[in-house]
Amino acid sequence: MSKQFLGVIAAIILVFAGIIAFTGHNDKNSSTKGQQPSNHVIGKGSTGVKLVEYGDYECPFCGQYYPILKQVQTEFNDQIFFQFSNFPLVSIHKNAFAGARAAEAASLQNKFWEMHDLLYENQDPNGASGWVASNDPLDQYFVNFAQQLGLNVNQFKQDYTSDKVNGVINADMDAGNKLGITGTPTFFIDGKKVEIGQSVQEFEKVINAEIAKKGSATNSGTTSQTQSTQTNSNSSSQTQSGH
């Protein structure tokens, strides 16, 4: 076997190794074994109701829902929990996974929701400009966002490409796939998938109905417990009088 031929084989191996190393920083790059999904929850949740959004930071429909959801969160902050889970549609949105990385990297410095908001507020719904169309969103946009939020930029950049961040996103996607999610935004209220129109009023209708439902169940349980206590008390009184 000639040295020239061996050299060609070695070059091919190096090319494949480079491809593997490069793709190791793209999308589904980390095993989710043992990795827990994200747990980004806000709201005081006095009623116990939870609204969950599976979203994609590049998705134009998620971008359209974003200001509506901000109003809903403000209105129902005391009453419900609101949770965001990652579901980047990587097959159609080239920077969706990158956006999720930015948010999760910021989360490690306790700035998840602030980065979440910046990503949507700087998203171009038509994909004609902004970070969604960038060939280098990290250096061209996300570093600037991190600086705006007062993050340690070096730490942010390290976390952005870390297995930990990628693993969390992949775990969210796995959870979403198990729920049968195919598009974004997808909403669940108390574990039930719901279709909600694009208006504050539509969210109010769905949330208030769930709050009322949960309230009725709680009141019913309390009433039953009270009746049971009264029955036991009466039985005890009758037993004592029998002696």
Explained architecture:
With 243 residues, the chain is α+β, with helices and mostly antiparallel strands. The chain has a single domain, classed as 3-Layer(aba) Sandwich (Glutaredoxin), CATH 3.40.30. Helix content is 57%, strand content 10%. It has helices spanning 3-23, 60-76, 96-107, 112-121, 137-148, 153-160, 163-178, 200-242, and strands at 40-42, 49-55, 80-86, 186-189, 192-194. It has a five-stranded mixed beta sheet.
Q: Which radius of gyration do the C-alpha atoms yield?
A: 25 Å
Corresponding CATH superfamily? Glutaredoxin
First-residue to last-residue Cα separation:
107 Å
> Uncertain runs with pLDDT below 50, 5 residues or more?
5-26, 236-243
- CATH fold group: Glutaredoxin
Helix-strand string: HEEHEHHHHHEEH
Biggest sheet, spatial arrangement of strands: 1-3-2-4-5
What's the CATH architecture name? 3-Layer(aba) Sandwich
How many domain units? 1
**What structural class do the secondary elements suggest?**
alpha+beta
Number of distinct beta strands: 5
Shape: globular
